[in-house]
Write a structure and sequence with these properties.
- By secondary structure, the protein is an alpha+beta fold.
- The chain is 16% helix and 34% strand.
- A five-stranded antiparallel sheet has the order 1-2-8-3-6, covered by helices on one side. The chain has a three-stranded antiparallel sheet with strand order 5-4-7, with no helix packed on it.
- A hairpin with a 5-residue loop joins strand 9 (167-170) and strand 10.
- Helix 1 packs antiparallel against helix 2 (27-42).
- The longest helix is centred in the N-terminal third of the chain and has 16 residues, at 27-42.
- The radius of gyration is 16 Å and the shape is globular.
- Bound molecules: fe (ii) ion (FE2).
């Protein structure tokens, strides 16, 4: 047995995901098999380092847990304090969102003539549940903490170094604008916006 098999759920996930992205570039296969790996990772709530579970007072946090050296995937913990939410945004690459603690509300958007329009529908992810995003399966949404009195945490895997990806959000005037998210430093500062 190799050493990583004894190093806990996070190391195991990284090993297995590295093998997966080395075996296929097919998005459907990556989403299906990545979902199995992420499901196993989030069924255990003991492995997330405390510094990657900390809510910030003024905005949601996104802590990088791992980035593949070839940028074929990245793993990020998102921490939402009470009342915190994203803007309406896209991803431009495949992604899987797995709920670890608390719950998050996802407001659904459809692209209509290149413009994201609210469907009026939303759903709440509960611990252990996973959803997929990508330009193929639906890429625009707004996410918020569904818990009024505590932080919620979800674990995200994306098919790129997501903190470096140029993508889009709706600004305060409702116009599509570009952003590069970066990652939250463990000290709490944030490099980019939104
Ligand atoms: Fe998102």
């Amino acid at each position: 047995m190799n050493k990583a098999q004894h190093a806990g759920p996070l190391a195991r996930f990284i090993d297995d995901m590295t093998a997966l992205v080395g075996s296929t570039q097919d998005e459907r296969a990556l989403l299906a098999q990545g979902r199995q790996l992420l499901s196993r990772l989030i069924e255990n709530d003991q492995w997330l380092p405390a510094e990657c579970a900390r809510a910030l007072p003024d905005r949601y946090a996104q802590y990088l847990l791992h980035v593949d050296p070839q940028q074929r995937f990245s793993l990020v913990s998102f921490v939402w304090g009470p009342g915190q939410k994203t803007p309406v945004h896209d991803h431009t690459v495949w992604g899987l969102v797995g709920m670890l603690r608390g719950a998050e509300r996802c407001e659904e958007f459809n692209l209509v003539d290149g413009s994201p329009q609210p469907t009026g529908q939303s759903h709440v992810l509960q611990p252990g549940q996973i959803e997929a995003v990508s330009p193929t399966v639906g890429d625009w949404h707004r996410v918020s903490n569904a818990m009024a009195d505590r932080a919620s945490i979800s674990i995200h895997v994306y098919g790129a170094d997501i903190g470096q990806v140029r993508r889009h959000y709706l600004d305060a005037q409702g116009q599509i604008a570009e952003f590069v998210s970066g990652y939250t430093a463990h000290g709490g500062s944030f490099e980019h916006h939104p």
